[in-house]
Design brief:
The protein is an alpha/beta fold. The strands form two sheets. Strands 3, 4, 5, 6, 7, 8, 9, 10 and 11 form a nine-stranded mixed sheet that branches. The protein starts with a helix and ends with a helix. The C terminus is likely disordered. GO terms for molecular function: DNA binding; DNA-binding transcription factor activity. One of its GO terms (cellular component) is cytosol. Pfam families: HTH_1, LysR_substrate. Belongs to the LysR transcriptional regulatory family.
């Protein structure tokens, strides 16, 4: 059973004529007749009395309301798809890492909203694991997360590298290690550290670095808020390894200092992840382009600022 058969039967029922139905849909009469006959053969019963004007049989009367509903639902679905393809969707949903949302992304969001004022932006701050899960579940249009090859590769996903930024040490201004220009990894392993909660890419990145160096990470507190990181480190006992984007506000706090590590330096890679089928939507494509353009500029600005401190 095909949709055009249902549509042909509905047109004949509405016009009472194969010829008028054909004229209405812009085809020849034999095509309409063949489609209706095919539907009747599949159902095993006649839908029309073929005597003068076409009149519905009892089976046709039963089927007519459902034909209308099916054809109307199809028209509605086509209209909604057309809205998506023409960029007339009502909202754009995304999940992002906390530090990205506070540092690099505001300019992108602002530019997008100016260019697509009819679209509501819905932004959720999530850890990388959770962000990718809701993306795969179809609950959001895109995600901006930390790189993790096991999570950001696979069929159906388009992955863009947006930026790479150094991970540095945040500590209190009066911390014993604050006087050093760079802090060795061996020293870091001996100091209590604040780390991100499980499910955050930064936690895995830091833990892996210590394992690679044959050192033990002395993690004593797990958090997921940048404000909490700054507040706890400010007390002078703990320190934290954080990416540059998470250190912007800390640079203006006289009670905190930021120091690089010694070699080998650690960096994190931020990626934009989009389901391949979503790239057919103009707002998604445009947001992707804005990210590509803006992230490079934002990172350059951030590096310039970091050189002043």
């Amino acid at each position: 059973m095909r949709l055009e058969q249902l549509q042909a039967a509905l047109r004949v029922a509405e016009t009472g004529s194969f010829q008028e139905a054909a004229q209405k849909v812009g085809c020849n009469q034999s095509t309409i007749s063949r489609q209706v006959k095919g539907l009747e053969d599949e159902l095993g019963i006649a839908l029309f009395r073929r005597q003068g004007r076409m009149k519905l049989t009892a089976a046709g009367e039963r089927l007519l309301p459902r034909l209308r509903r099916i054809c109307q639902e199809w028209q509605t679905a086509c209209a909604e798809i057309d809205e998506l393809l023409s960029g007339r969707q009502t909202e754009l949903c995304m999940a992002i890492a906390d530090s990205i949302g506070g540092c690099y992304l505001p300019a992108v969001l602002n530019r997008f909203q100016q260019q697509w004022p009819s679209i509501r932006l819905r932004v959720s701050t999530l850890g990388s694991d959770r962000a990718l899960k809701v993306l795969r579940d179809g609950l959001i249009d895109l995600a901006i997360v930390m790189d993790s090859p096991s999570m950001t590769t696979g069929s159906g996903l388009v992955v863009d590298l947006l930026l790479e930024e150094e991970v540095q040490v945040l500590l209190a201004a009066d911390h014993p290690l604050a006087a050093q220009k760079a802090i060795a990894w061996e020293q870091l392993s001996q100091v209590p550290q604040v780390v991100f909660k499980d499910g955050y890419g930064m936690q895995r990145l830091v833990e892996q670095r210590f394992r690679d160096l044959g050192l033990e990470l002395n993690s004593c507190l797990e958090l997921n808020s940048l404000d909490s990181f700054r507040g706890v480190v400010r007390e002078g006992y703990w320190l934290a390894l954080l990416p540059q984007a998470a250190l912007v506000d800390a640079r203006h706090d006289p009670r905190l200092v930021i120091r690089p590590t010694t070699e080998p330096r650690l960096s994190r890679r931020i990626k934009l992840v989009i389901p391949e089928d979503h790239l057919s939507l103009p707002p998604v494509r445009h947001f992707r382009q804005l990210c590509r353009e803006a992230m490079t500029a934002e990172l350059a600005d951030l590096k310039a600022v970091s050189q002043l401190f």
